[in-house]
Amino acid sequence: MMQIVPMAAQHVQQVAQLETRCFSDPWSVRSIEAELENPLSFWLVALEGETVLGYVGSQTVPPESDVMNLAVAPEWRRSGIALQLLLQLTQYLEKSGVESLSLEVRENNRPACSLYIKMGFVIVGRRPGYYRNPQEDALIMRKELRHADTVDRIFL
């Protein structure tokens, strides 16, 4: 049975291996380890037993947060893991007072774009040449986490 838990030191090696499998410009083990020590970071892993099936990482500077990375092992894609990771991340961030969540995604990554749109993200911009290997633009997507009535109560 899959469970989603905060990333811990014992998950770092497997997350790094997934980075290598999923991305042409993967984060290093040291970069991932550093996220555990970064007070602005919050990462979740999807586990089947002790095996990391996927992960999502964020960095927050209130009242905003950015998705740093989201990946699911190729053999586990299209099974709802990415959706569950994003749902749990947004719930955690919302409870923490975060008002919006942003991310960059490869323009031609249709499965990821579809997931983000399904989750309520909207395209708010573009970063030309953001990705390497291959060179590609990034779409900047954003999701508002707080409802307008919450904001109204703060300013009234």
Number of helices: 5
Distance between termini? 46 Å
What's the total count of β strands?
Answer: 7
Shape summary: globular
Biggest sheet, spatial arrangement of strands: 1-2-3-4-5-7-6
| Mean pLDDT reading | 93
Order of helices and strands: EHHEEEHEHEEH
* Overall SS class: alpha+beta
Helical content band: 25-40%
Unreliable spans: 148-156
Main sheet summary: 7 strands, mixed
Q: In percent, how much strand structure appears in the residues?
A: 35-45%
Describe the structure concisely for a colleague.
The protein has helices at 12-22, 29-37, 81-95, 110-118, 148-155; strands at 2-6, 41-48, 51-61, 64-72, 100-106, 122-131, 136-144. By secondary structure, the protein is of the alpha+beta class.
Structural features, described:
By secondary structure, this protein is of the alpha+beta class. The chain contains five helices and seven strands, in the order E-H-H-E-E-E-H-E-H-E-E-H. A seven-stranded mixed β-sheet has the order 1-2-3-4-5-7-6, with helices on both faces. Strand 4 (64-72), helix 3 (81-95) and strand 5 form a beta-alpha-beta unit. The termini are far apart. The relative contact order is 0.14. Mean pLDDT is 93; it is low at 148-156.
